[in-house]
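Worked example

This section walks through a single chain of length 296. The input is the sequence exactly as stored; nothing has been trimmed or padded.
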Amino acid sequence: MATDATLRFSFIPVNGVTLHCAEAGPGDGPLLVLLHGFPEFWFAWRDYFGPLAAQGFHVVAPDQRGYNLSSKPLGIEAYRLDVAAADVFALADVFGRRAFHVVGHDWGASVAWRMTGQEPDRLLSAAVLQAPHPAVWRRAMREDRDQRQKSRYVQILRLPWLSEMALKLGDYATLAKAFRSSTRPQAFTPEILEIYRGAWRQPGAITSMLNWYRALFLFDPPMPAAGALKPRILVLWGDRDDFGLPQLADESVALCADARLQHWPQATHWIIHDEPKAVQDALLDFMRAQPSRDVR
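Given that input, the structure is written out below as tokens.
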């Protein structure tokens, strides 16, 4: 496990829940919030704390609501993307930052997309990895046969009760197998998978994690007009993703006023684990290009 930084852990009340957070780097540095996806938790960013903190960033990676040690509110509506986005803005408030950087992978990227439309002026930058804009995703699941095929798992995960039972079978064997497509198997050794199982075993975690999928279908996310999303946005997409078509990244970029898109032909859905050094370099290059702004 490569962290190269002293991690600090805390429980922070925000937006009606308490988020368990891992931090590294100087507390007075520019705030950089890292958002994990399914079925991970703050530990997804284990290779990122050291390199990003070494560049002066105050790196904060919460367990998103429902995951690991964070609060697990009851009910599907508690896991809407707008609620999860509000968690992150409230977290930045706790750290005294009006404007900050956000990086998200998978569901974390979906939250970051929602943030770009919710309070765009607060984002110094947004980097989204392996998740299209939620409106693009929903439309593709309805209208694109190939994406419907790739998204079959979404319908399965939405099933009440059966999904929970299936994921717990064989000591969470299905969740562990989800990582197998990664091109870097050393990122998911038996020892590391046992750390993930510790998070999945937390009381209520599996249902809460699945409720993110269930909440997506409570309403249709609004489709922004072309160029309507104002923050500077970086989209990194591994084209060997088992769950999403590469063209969804292009369709999402078309919604942005100022976006940079990089397709990585050999990376999978687990791009943050497949190519950690290259992803770190891409993130740093993008964030360093930001115009000077008051981050207080």
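What to look for: The chain has a mean pLDDT of 95.
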